Amino acid sequence: MGAVINYAVKSGLVIARNRCRRMLRVYTLGELMADRAKKPPPREPTDLDLLTMAEVKIPHMLENIAVARRALELEKQYGGLEDIEIYRAHSEGRLMHIRLGSYTQPITSMAAIQCRVVLEFLGLGTSKKEPCRLAARASRESGDIGIEDFANVRGEPLERMTPEEALKLVPNPVRAELAWVTTIHFANQRLAHATDDYRLGGRSVRPHLYNAFRTVPMLAQQAFEERRGSLVGRAVYSAPERR
What we know:
disordered C terminus; globular; about 45% helix; 7 strands; alpha+beta; single chain; 3-stranded antiparallel β-sheet
């Protein structure tokens, strides 16, 4: 019955239309509510998932973020409309002739999304009550991987970061918080949705992106890589089940 897309209630019965079979069926209201209450069991990351996240995905994202910081520096130095040529090292022949902005903007956009991923991995997001403030993520979706899925070399589970803990690890915490929050909103709103841009108000976010590209790798290095100590997944060190 998971394919039901609309229904009408009449005399305690539910007349539901099935999306796939294009047919009507009558259910009691209790049957419908019980069906909707059923949830699949939560998905837990495997050891391979943890290994890939720690040794491949996180380092790859941090490298991309560092490249994006350099891309913003190039835009500031030359302007986005400047023509550039791209060559392959130690070989002849031009690979690409393109406007600088057309090359750098996809890099910075992807890095903004990856900053959000890293912050969420560490347990950080934005506050619903105060959108301009950083907040701790209370829960995760099924299948998500977070810092709490890892342990250090002594077998002690790593904890999700609180905003206060995270901001102590970077210089100028007030600017860093604004940069991280702005980058999250930029990734969620301007990049992921066609919206009225009400959170950012049409303002340029480049200074905040640059600061996020500088501080998020710094945070990840101290909050995850140094605390973890070495390659370790939850199963190896018997870290607790996801809370």
